[in-house]
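Task card 7
Instruction: Convert sequence to structure tokens.
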Amino acid sequence: MSATVHAFPAFAYLNSPRSWILAAILLLHAAFLWSLSNGLSRSIITFVEPRTVVDFIPEEIEPLPPPPPPREFRPQVLNPVPPGSIPILGPVGEDAITVPEARPQPIPQPVPETRPAPVLVQPQIDPARPLSEPAYPPQDVRIGNTGTVLLSVLVLPDGRVGEVRLDRSSGHSRLDASALSEARQWRFKPGTQDGTAIPMWKQLPITFRLQD
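Output:
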């Protein structure tokens, strides 16, 4: 043992008790420093916190006014709109603007073609061929029968009589028959429409009377 100590003179002081105590103290200091550097200091600082005291001092606060009652909703009544217009309401307080209602335009109807009234000319008695008088029946002359026969004759475009019609009797059959028979022999100037000869009726009275 002594040979070992003498062989390493630098470690000779470790053989004394004092040396061991110093070494232990150094180890404790090293361990303490290591613990401080590895979190022990944090736990101590965190644990030891300064105490704070907060005092709530009551103060006199004015109470808030109660909320206003809910406003009653009233619908706005508009003035009636006159027929034929559509109201356009502006903001509240401004007069309403009315726009005339659009009405459909009437469809133009075709204008009927207006033609002038036809020009009619009634059949006339031809002066070159005056009407012959019907025969006065002898029996009616002796008895003294008289009267007026009203005839309607259909004058054809060539002026001849196509048909004869008794409109009013004289009251005596022989007088009526004599007038009808003689009228079929008459000739007229035919009636015309716009200058063209057309068939046309013509009314003629025939009077039978006795001379004094």
